[in-house]
## 1
Amino acid sequence: MSAEDAAVPERVIRPQRGFIAINFAELWRYRELFGFLVWRDILLRYKQTYLGVAWVVIQPLLTMVVFTVLFGRFAKFPSHGAPYEVLTFAALLPWQFFANTLAESSNSMVASARIISRVYFPRLLIPASVVSSGFVEAGISLVLLLLLMLAYGVAWHARLLLLPLFLLATFFVTFGVGAWFSALNVKYRDVRYIVPFITRVGMYVTPVGFLWLDVVPERWRLLFCVNPLVAVIDGFRWCVLGPKFEPYWPGSP
């Protein structure tokens, strides 16, 4: 060992202990790196795509059309007087945020293996930055939702100011699941096959294209609410469509 190497103090990294195993002060110190990672993920998300950011508009609009035709026109699921297009798009906004960022955040640790092995920083920044980059798409979709409300005669009201809170709840749900899967993916590479399966099946057990209180029997409602996105989607619809779509509380009729 050279004299220069001997002069460098050794740094020992130990796991955080206690009930809350997250060092928030350390995360704050690396806030500039976090901002850089978010910006990098935004730039890379649609790099080398022909339509680029237009996919943010095309994907949910096409899904909305399919759900409206299948569930609204053919299956004739009830909408309680609300335009089925707005009803569906209000649920698609948090679902697309979850599904798109979960796929990328679950693979984020493996994709960033080179930088992780070379320099120390809080590893939570990696999945958090990927999920945070989804706010750009969510913001564009939110503007599109407001335009749909105008097009279909749905009035704007004060409850719309609560939409950012439910969007923040979507972030925490996605970040929690994505961080867990990203850690598992480091050791078990089967995770990259499991996550797409979860998002495909999740579309049918999450009330995106229908009002679940009209479909799910009462004895199964509490179990259905184990899915955290159920409450988030209910909250979005309540903010957009009004009191008739108040979120379900366990024990209520």
## 2
Amino acid sequence: MNSTLRAPLSLVVLLSLAVVQSSLSQVNSTSEIRLDPRVQKIVDRAVQRALEQFGEKKLEANELAVTLVDLREPNKPAQGSYRGGEQIYPASVIKLFYLVAAHRWMEDGKLKDSEELRRAMRDMIVDSYNEATGYIVDLLTDTTSGPELAPAEMEVWYEKRNAVSRYFTSLGFQNINVNRKPWCEGPYGREKQSVNLHKPNHRNWLTTDATARLLTEIVSGKCVTQERSRQMMELLRRDPFNPKAETQSREYTGKALPEGAKLWSKAGWTSETRHDAAYVELPDSNRFALVVFTMNHANEKDIIPTVVRAVIEGFDQQR
């Protein structure tokens, strides 16, 4: 548990806008998402609600990050966020970035489309299988896991493994690292060797700002191509009202949605983290992308739904 002293809630909320402005100033100008004080107000209230409701569970102000993009006007996305530029271990949310990279590589002729690749992409996103993701990482970077390598060979391997990170950096994404396979019990061999050698990039890192930007580009059809964005959306589609659906549909963002809402999302979870990156269409025509990362409270399943409910209330109050 983080031992940092908790700031008074009023101070947290008052300071959040300043924190956000500092982090969002790092967003590259290639992003068409603009800052909006109305959206920021919704985020501030949602964060305050979560900190108050889970205060007894010792949810700290630095254990939560939120980015909200208002998509009611699809061509004018508006954003607010809390700690949106903080590097956080993303768990399986990283798979969104590998999905986009796979489509980019296919579009550019660097990766051959195949039935096996499509099977792996589906399993990576729909069921969040780590084995499928590892296969895709190998294809994207021309690397494989295996025994340790000699120092010179390791540096060649690591240069190749950074291909996806370099691609997103070239698009203006900042404070991210996208070069690690997700593991259940690993890593071992050259994967562990690289973890030991290549710090601070020994883990994948994302920010909620970067994740929200990528998700917004997929939703708007601007990610790679319109048709490829559509294909990505099909894999991200969830059914939050089906009691037999997988947990990515029924828990996380889906747990807080009203009847008739539509959901597309990718969740991530470990023993320490619980995250969701979601696009929501509400029956009242409100549409938004919401990315919520939580740290050190993986078993608190209601933090993300609490933020979602507060966001929905915020949109209702601004009508």
## 3
Amino acid sequence: MTSALYDSFIADYYDESPVVKGRLQDVAFYRDAARDFGDPVLELGCGTGRVTMALAQAGKRVTGLDLSERMLERAVKKRAALFTEERERIHLVQGDMARFDLGEKFRLIIIPFRPLQHLLEVKQQTDCLECVSKHLAPGGRLVLDVFQTDAERMHDPVHMREMLVTEYNTPTGGR
């Protein structure tokens, strides 16, 4: 998806969208991940800062990167409403998640709520993962959200509500 689409109308309504407005479980998940893996945290596709702000409020230093200037304008407004020490933990960057160089390593890199799926070309996806690899600190973690699109589910009101996420422990100790 291009920045133009977000900059045209999605940025204006994103936070009030029924799919976004009630989402709280994922924020708690990323807050726990930041607690477990440490900071600094890099959020790719940060949009209006829904997750970014929550991490800063939890005491984490966060860099949010997004392609859309209008989404970032909304994030800047949200940041301005925070306490001074929370605001100072947030650095917002306009950039392409498939081509970025921030000159910093991160303990945790997150791609919440599916922005990786906005990279439609395999080359963009691999470029993004290569950038992630260059920015991960030793022992750092990448946590990303992907969604298997299913037209039937997308139009079923029961599935439009947030559902509990099931976690599985892998044999290698991952989760």
## 4
Amino acid sequence: MEKELAYLGKAVTNPARPFVAILGGAKVSDKIEVVENLMKIADAMLIGGGMAYTFEKAQGLPIGKSLVENDKLDLAKRLLADAKAKNFTFLLPKDHVVAPEFKADAKATVCDVSTTPEDQMGLDIGPKTIAAYAAELRRLKQLCGTGQWAF
């Protein structure tokens, strides 16, 4: 555990570049301090999981029945505005896998986030998002030569 804490301490005080934070999970509120603090030191942030839908709804995008924290929309708007003002790379999904419900046997399809049907919920990032995130990681690695990835 000491080694892990020492590594984590170095990663946030003097990270190798590029330092890319990849965050997901269901709730923005569980990670809001992490998002705010990582935006101060990371070179980019890639968002996935349920927390992406709060950011997407904050931008006026349709999210269907996807998870959202309506009480965090203003905070999401502020974080997006901060990222834009600082020219900070803050990537959200472009497309996603959707289904009527979160069940193993639910009929899933892929659609652009901007065309999310009202009767569908987002379940995972789609192939365009995977490609965009991979391209961003390659671009940053080429710029900096090495890398530090925070998951």
